[in-house]
Design brief:
BirA Bifunctional Protein, domain 2; 3 domains; Translation Initiation Factor IF3; Rossmann fold; 11-stranded mixed β-sheet
Chain lengths: ~475, ~475
């Protein structure tokens, strides 16, 4: 029995976190690199994970009345230029198509970096009256941003995401939508991905190009850096004015509608890896895991073992669990390491002695804990254990978030704390000059003003002016 | 009660089929045009239809062991050029990216027109041993081909599709896969989309660029033209040799693997429209319909009507049907026309008198037939009727296919028949020169050599040489 493919060692997290990350995404067979820098291939395991994420989020969107559409890949240069803040933010980092077949195009087309302009053009076609509002649209697609430094999932030239784009008769309705979708992201990130996060509003320096304001969820990673993981933008009627979108209200007056957009991307997979992974590889929360449990026959050559393992896998699948049975001729040890690397939440071992005793062995990926469990009633026991693993991962992520959140009252205090990473909470006067000075001194960027006010002092950490605004800071991915 | 949005008349099919088609895709709110020629927007109704198609096909792929991946959008020019027949077929019609941000790229990238070259590059990375085979991969994405003449769904510069790409240890296994996926397409097109079709092998002149052979399903439209609706290609080891993909077999010898690819696209929505639509608009087969039944309250202002309609819609949804309830203040007449235009298979009317009598009225979109039905047991009755509509649409499509298939023994016979359109079945010697001459004389192109031999003579329709090969001809979309 030749173990042709060896499970190789990965770099330990504490030795080199960046190398650990790169090792995990390759060894867990999540991605492969293509010959275009910054464009990766999502291998079946990553794609299955992304499809689980998509299906849960899509269900949440549809439950709140959203509909999916598909917009074109290309934006003419003149269309991108219609909203001036937006084009200033995106034009420097788009890919340009200049030729179709053998002919030079009369106008350059960019490959969409985001689709506000396309949605606006479409809205101008289809919205005439108050009857046509609201439109609550979303699309699942890939977008392209010509980044200089790239890392799989975290920052790539092409990435997959969903982008919601909605348009409303009133500012209040649009604002409520902006906030509702941010809460949807927070709900999903906490309850399905078990991430530790804070929610809040971006400062003006950090908001989306063209937005009046941007809400964000910021997740705390194992290494103390923050990952912006989902954002929701309120546009007011700025885009509507730039694109000439108007509707007649019930009193027959012509008015401009109000818009939002919001997005979550494959970046969140990077967040999942850096929150839960350990020195044996990935750890995937059960609710989104492509494989929730792997069944491994022990002494599979002995009579009855394979049959029993197949029956067990069948029973678990029939109960609605996502189960893999590994019948290959690799050794159990090889298989243990392989599925640890892939972060499968639950391993179920079944050998001749177990079968005699009417039991199997359950091994948790997160804690490593192993215990025997009776075969009778196993589907219920496995489900309960998966729920416990899910809850336990969230507890651990929240504990990391709490342990890595500090406060500072002065720039000196903050400078002393900053090298440890994590979030630092301070008061802030609201001035962009103070925000910039803190960044220069500490290297940390503002993450968000939390929704729930958190009183940690009375004066701005930088200039000392009186204020009641709290701001979170952190090093960012 | 103002019917602000009128259901406008569409051109009759017999007056101008092309205009009828354009009217339907706009008035049924399937697509909107973007400012880039040949790039359309899939509006919510078309996207929901495409997602139903995707989910059914994806289930069929996964049931046969296929896994989804996501490949990059861009192909470097040098990579596209590695297989010479393939690049010759596609290079003239690709969109070229020449700049990233403000910098000129050192090598042009094309926006994928199809992804064989990307899959090959990836396979070269991940395949070393017989243990790594087969790989049965698929992806859902959009691709770009810079067409000169464009029509929504039928021929566009960007379109959405799935592309399966598989790689096998033996030629036999790859050939079996090629044929299996073609049969999957035929099964889906007949049983879910209710299309009338023939299955067969493309001639060498019509096969895919780089393939050894191509299988196809060809659907017969209402106007007598043929629509190539799904293709499956066998590549032999040509791509493997061009891309240096090799594996060590069980005896430790280095060998080239064998490949296939297969695709079905949003084009199939055009086929659905042109098969089932009528002068009142779309007709969508129940199995893929985004809305299977629409409930329309009659005299909705009368007490109890809206409540009863809501209860009815709820009961049907609970039984697993996709149901819309239209509570808007538009008139019933406006609603009837609107949902006829959208091709919703079943309309359920419910008024005060119906409620008194414990019944509703069921109206079939396909035949226009209306009949009362008791509210008790309605979910079962509606399901049975939807199945009958599905079967009836397939019978009608097959009848159209049969009525529009003729045979010819000589070029003169064929020339006389051709103006009526449809398929013409002839014998053919296998010579590309004869194929080309028939096209010149009749305007018809070869569609396929049917899998099941159909003896319609002994000699080639063009040169008169003895042959036992049958060939289908037709005008094509």
């Amino acid at each position: 029995m030749a173990a042709e493919k060896k499970v190789e060692q990965i770099t330990a997290r504490d030795v080199d976190f960046a190398q650990w990350y790169t090792d995990v995404v390759k060894k867990a067979e999540l991605v492969d690199y293509s010959s275009v820098k910054g464009c990766v291939i999502l291998r079946p395991y990553a794609q299955a994970l992304w499809e689980n994420i998509r299906d849960i989020l899509d269900g949440m969107f549809k439950a709140t009345g959203h509909e999916n559409v598909a917009m074109p890949l290309f934006i003419p240069e003149s269309l991108l230029q219609k909203e001036k803040d937006h084009v200033a933010g995106f034009a420097p980092e788009v890919a340009w198509v200049t030729h179709g077949g053998t002919e030079k195009l009369t106008e350059r087309l960019c490959v969409r970096p985001t689709s506000e302009t396309l949605f606006c053009e479409h809205y101008a076609h289809i919205i005439q009256s108050w009857r046509d509002l609201p439109k609550l649209y979303n699309q699942w697609c890939s977008v392209v941003r010509w980044e200089k430094t790239t890392r799989p999932f975290l920052r790539s030239r092409e990435f997959w995401w969903q982008e919601g784009h909605t348009i409303h008769a009133t500012a209040e309705e649009a604002e409520a939508e902006t906030r509702r979708m941010l809460e949807t992201y927070a709900d999903f990130a906490e309850n399905d991905l078990a991430l530790g996060l804070i929610k809040g509003r971006k400062t003006d320096s950090e908001k989306f190009a063209g937005a009046e304001h941007t809400y964000t969820i910021e997740c705390m990673m194992h290494d103390g850096k923050a990952l912006q993981s989902g954002t929701s933008h309120y546009f007011g009627d700025g885009f509507a004015r730039a694109f000439g979108i108007q509707f007649t209200d019930k009193s027959n007056a012509l008015r401009y509608p109000f818009q939002t957009s919001w997005g979550m991307s494959t970046r969140i997979i990077g967040g999942l890896i850096m929150t839960h992974g350990d020195d044996s590889g990935l750890v995937i929360p059960p609710r989104v895991a492509p494989i929730q449990a792997v069944v491994i026959p022990i002494a599979a050559h002995k009579p009855g073992v394979l049959d029993a393992a197949r029956a067990l896998a069948g029973t678990l699948r029939a109960a609605g669990l996502r189960v893999k049975l590994d019948e290959s001729d690799q050794s159990p040890g090889w298989k243990f390491a392989e599925y640890e690397m892939k972060g499968i939440p639950l391993r179920i071992e079944l050998g001749p002695r177990d079968i005699e005793q009417g039991q199997c062995v359950l091994a948790r990926r997160d804690t490593g804990e192993k215990r025997p469990a009776p075969l009778a009633g196993l589907p219920e026991a496995a489900k309960a254990l998966l729920e416990e693993i899910q809850a336990s991962l969230l507890r651990a992520a929240r504990a990391n978030l709490a342990a890595r959140t500090g406060t500072a009252s002065t720039l000196d205090e903050m400078k002393a704390l900053a090298p440890e990473g994590g979030f630092i909470k301070t008061m802030w006067c609201g001035d962009a000059a103070c925000e910039e000075k803190v960044r220069e001194v500490t290297g940390m960027k503002s993450r968000c003003v939390p929704f729930a006010p958190e009183h940690v002092g009375d004066t701005c950490v930088c200039c000392g002016k009186k204020t009641d605004t709290t701001l979170y800071w952190g090093f960012q991915y």
